[in-house]
Specification:
It contains six helices and two strands. The protein has a two-stranded antiparallel sheet. It has 172 residues and is mainly alpha-helical. β1 and β2 form a beta hairpin. 74% of the residues lie in helices and 3% in strands.
Amino acid sequence: MTGLTRLTWHLMRLLFLAGSVAVILMMLHIGADVLARALLGRPTIGMVETVTNYYMIAVCFLPLAFVQIEGAHLTVDSFTMALPPRALQVVTLFSLLVAAGISGLLTWHSALSALHKTRTGEYTDLSVIDFPLWPARWLLVAGYGTTFFTLCLQAILCLAGRPLSMTERAHG
């Protein structure tokens, strides 16, 4: 399982980097739009559509699995702090399975939607060009799908009594 865990972590890191690149591209694109408005008196074509339909989705959804595998999601452990280790393992396993079920459903629904939008060639009209929107639908599938895979892997690790996050592995 260690090789699979390491491979998963590297894949999640790659998606995290893709989300980080999207932040930088979004910043540069918005900056270029601001400069175009200030210097040329007109905005860049498609800036709002690109930011809302590509960059924002990449920034929000691609890093989800990385945050999960790092154990960096917000947690409220007020009720579980006093639990004995075995009970905590059961609660953790239950929460991983519920989260995996939800992310699996989100993956399935997103994939169906992405397939439909790809087949129909979803786009928006920018008056000068047709701006394709359907490719961004696959970013949701990638984010949810890798999160589902990560949660399933963590559930297996939990059953085996092994650390769930790369941070736990590194620090014992």
